[in-house]
Amino acid sequence: MDKIMGYMRPNGKIGIRNHVLIIPSVGCAAHVSDSISREVPGSIYLDNQYGCGQIGKDLKQSFRTLAGLGSNPNVAAVLVVGLGCEALRPEELVMEIAKSGKPVEMLLIQESGGTTKTIKKGVQIARNMVEEASKIKSELYSIENIVLGLECGGSDTTSGLAANPALGYAADLLIKQGGKVILSETPEMIGAEHILAKRAISSTIADKLLKVVKAFEQKAIDEGENIRETQPSPGNKAGGLTTIEEKSLGCVYKAGTSNINDVVDYAEPIKEKGLTVMNTPGQDVQSMIGMLAGGAQIIAFTTGRGNPCGTPIAPVIKITGNLQTYKKMKENFDVYVGDLIESDSSMEIEGLKIYNKILDACNGKETISEKLGHREFAMWRIGTTY
Known about the structure:
The chain is built from 15 helices and 14 strands. It is an alpha/beta fold.
């Protein structure tokens, strides 16, 4: 079984990065949080603009997402910065993250003397956290501890012909070694959901998958839109995709051939070994953030047209099967698998390329998105702002 170098967390989870995370519980605390992070090398800031004017399921989902990110194994310690009067209660966020056993502290701007004093206090707390995190030594662990998130964006014909099938091969390899894999992007299953449902381990899981996909399409219909007419996107169409079914058939290749063991909602923890489907939007950053909140330590991202996005706390491996895109945006890619189209390469060869890049990243090697400083952040909102 392959091994990785990781950081053991108090709850037994293994991280492949060792970040100190600064989370504003509301957009009103974003500037202060950002200012703290800028003064503390080794800390990461989440650009959260929500947390107030939210109610019901929407507020609960935002809370679950931020708590999941703070609990992610790639995070060593967390500083929550709140205003003090927001709907998303910072003290409750601290309590939820603290269940992971990692150090977590809170500052409230209204109780800390305003902007300048809160930044000063936060800088000291974050510096202490970074210093303590630096004392955590990485050790050798089995790759079965890895949760891999699958993503595709800026898709074209080469995505379904090369990049996604090659990623599916790599995903199957990880699952065979006991790892966990997440397939996301619910709207990009529309038209192919019946194929995925056949791979569910039970009728209950199959029914749940079909229900989730149907609900996503019905929501668009209720809003007066036919998602099958608005998708694929203009970029997808320019890349040769003509229908949402065609796009979905290419998308689901990322999931390889393994059985589907579970279906979970956005940002819910991944519990089952093997392949899990997570209900997320097709928007790339929101989808990736949901998977990280669910526990993914790494993302593998295919793109035919070219998408440079990364994440704040996890390495993203960028993969393309499009030779022209690779030539134009070579600095943005970790893996090129277009030889499946351009020459006589095999799925095994190209799939192993991706799997080995996953191993490299899990062993501390920076991915292109990390080197270029891509730390995009966006949460999926499912309600109105009041």
